Hints:
By secondary structure, the protein is mainly α.
Amino acid sequence: LDRCADTLIGSVLSPGLSGGEMKRTAVAVELISSPSLIFLDEPTSGLDSHNAFELVKILRGLAEAGCTIVCTIHQPSSEVFDLFHRVMLLRYGQMVYNGPVEGVAEHFAAHGHHCKPNYNPADFAMTTVQRITDEEAQPLIQTVQSVVKEGSEIEGVSSAASGMWDSNPAPFVTQFRHLVKREFYQVLRDEMTLMSRFGMAIVLAILIGLIFMGSGGKWGDGDTGADVEKKVKNHWGGLQFFTINAMFLSAEPLLLVFPLERPVFIREYITGTYGTSAYFLAKTMVDVPVAFLQQLLGLVVVYFLIDYQGDFFLHVLALTLLAIVSGSTALLLGASTTRAETAVNLVPAIYVPQILFAGFFITSDAIPVFMRWIQWGCFLKYGVALSTIVEFSEKNLPDNNTAASDVVATLVHDSSINRDHWWIYTLIMLAAFVGIRSIAAFVLAKKARDFE
């Protein structure tokens, strides 16, 4: 595989490895954890005679190195068939031969079925067991049964099977390093998805910025209470929409990650290639910088179009916190479902309440008492609180305009935001990020263990 080491594996829509290279890659992946026993289901199907021979030759070398390999084989050529050490022939689930490859022709000849000289013994055996009647097959079956009793161990397999899951996983640091590298390359190679994420962030930022253009500017000294209230509402409206935009932009790309990656993860998790913690930490190490860049690009546009007054870097941090929590929620949603369609259909049930209880359309004290507690479990509320504290800090308000201070104070109070609790909001967001990711890791690991 050295010649194709830098080639994408590819898919139906994206060309990549050839059929033979893909087969060898699939086998190579299973060898990472040094298993004692490998099962292969028709590894040569779809390959030409040369690639089939090369693949089986590699498998024989692995077998001679101490790894027990059991596989089904479809119409092997004579040279491919000769590479096997032992062969088991079945007819309607009953064993008609079990032994060395070189003994196939002799076994059938002993029961009146002779293989012609220079004839492929594999083709001969398969043709014979399909043509003979049940009565003619009984001597073959009975001969094998007398040698291999029902329930007895097959030579060379039992000892490996007892330790088939005794893989030798790499140390955590090694797993983490290689998984980070794989995630990083996967993001860079998927240029269409990466560009669409960044492009959508910029396009929506331009749209929001144009609609709320200039609404964040300083208020004039002569503005009346009505003028100030109108400007503050427009200013906060732009802040709200951009915060909601950050939540959805971060959730959408990650929603379908696990439904699409689950087959690969389950296979590699079961074989002991890596653990759940290394997998999630590696994904987090790549997801967080991408989320940061996405929010940074959008904020560069909105900050100057709307004319934000808050600290630019603090705005980026607040939006990034919201983005990674929202993305983690999407990951949990994807990990909890088995189908991508189900994950998409559940999005409104998770994200619509975020908007309802964030204080955009109804004040906290106006929410029914028995439902008021729900707002404290909505991460969007804390994201809006942090952005509001950054943007409407006292130093950003005009010193000689008491109307502005009064309107902002009323807005902050009605939204149940306490400026002194910014560190509490930050800790809650960080705890939600760690907690939701941990739950997603647990759910995904449980689903993988169900396949063992």
